[in-house]
Amino acid sequence: MFKKGPKVQSFTRRDLIFGILNRFQKRDTPRDRTGFSPEAREIDHLIQKKDFQKAIPLLRTLLQKSPDHLQAKQKLGYCLLQQKDYETSLQVFEEILKDREQDNFSLLYYGLALAKLGKKNEAVETWKKYFNIDQPYIQRAINIQIALYETDGPGSLDDMVESIEQAITDQEREDW
């Protein structure tokens, strides 16, 4: 009787505000605010302190209340990655990338999770989709690693991961 139309994404005021802010500031590091609620600020504080183990359950609780909360999903994937739960991290980022194919944060850390699992080819293919001129340290490191990979240049998978992680650290320092 009724045709099923395309999936419509729901938006909250938070999504609108953060969407506008993120349009002007395209950072791909976990330092972006999760939100303004006390629980979101607690999550951000825990991530800043690198207490990922405590942040994960809070992020999951936040996502139960607001399943479309993009920053919470991104940070959950990031925290799982930092806790070396690579498979679960991949699942979180895959869920984001299903709806947002060009989400640079997810592409960056999804590629890192793949690389940490030894999936160099998949990591490079993921990073080829990454493009963010607002993050020059990260963009340059990814471009170099792709070029080295494509020319069979020197460098192991560990070197690749280390290079990308160093670029993220350098970018965070530059942004602050």
Which helices and strands occur, and which strands form pairs?
Blueprint: H1 13-24, H2 38-48, H3 52-65, H4 70-82, H5 86-99, H6 104-116, H7 120-127, H8 136-150, H9 157-175
Molecular structure report:
- The chain is mainly alpha-helical.
- Helix 4 (70-82) runs antiparallel to helix 5 (86-99).
- It is globular, with a radius of gyration of 17 Å.
- It has helices at 13-24, 38-48, 52-65, 70-82, 86-99, 104-116, 120-127, 136-150, 157-175.
- The protein has a single domain (27-175), classed as Serine Threonine Protein Phosphatase 5, Tetratricopeptide repeat.
Share of helix, binned: 55-70%
Total helical elements = 9
CATH H-level homologous superfamily name: Tetratricopeptide repeat domain
- The CATH architecture assignment turns out to be Alpha Horseshoe
Q: Please tell me how large the radius of gyration is.
A: 17 Å
Taking the alpha carbons of the first and last residues, their distance comes to 55 Å
User: H/E element string?
Assistant: HHHHHHHHH
| CATH fold group | Serine Threonine Protein Phosphatase 5, Tetratricopeptide repeat
Name the overall outline: globular
- Average pLDDT, rounded to a whole number, is 86
Q: How much β-strand is present in the residues?
A: under 5%
Count of distinct strands:
0
CATH class placement = Mainly Alpha
Structural class: mainly alpha
The parts where pLDDT drops under 50 for at least 5 residues are 1-11
Task: State the domain count.
Answer: 1
**Major sheet details:** none
